[in-house]
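Subject: design request, 65 residues
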């Protein structure tokens, strides 16, 4: 699951939460993963993030002025 929180801290990012409860953040500027989850474990969410990057950045600006 990919989640963006209102009033979150910079830099622009989303949270990726796995079904087992583990989570990480993905920086929207460079797609850097912050946390202990490997890129291979979140391949589908990373693909979705890249495909929707423009809208995610716009949403970040709207939700986190």
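Subject: RE: design request

Done. Sequence follows.
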């Amino acid at each position: 699951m990919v989640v963006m929180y209102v009033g979150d801290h910079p830099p622009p990012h989303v949270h990726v939460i796995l079904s087992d409860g583990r989570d990480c953040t993905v920086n929207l500027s460079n797609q850097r993963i912050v946390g202990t989850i490997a890129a291979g474990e979140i391949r589908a969410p990373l693909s979705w993030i890249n495909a929707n990057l423009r809208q995610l950045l716009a949403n970040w600006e709207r939700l986190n002025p």
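The two ends are 24 Å apart (CA to CA).
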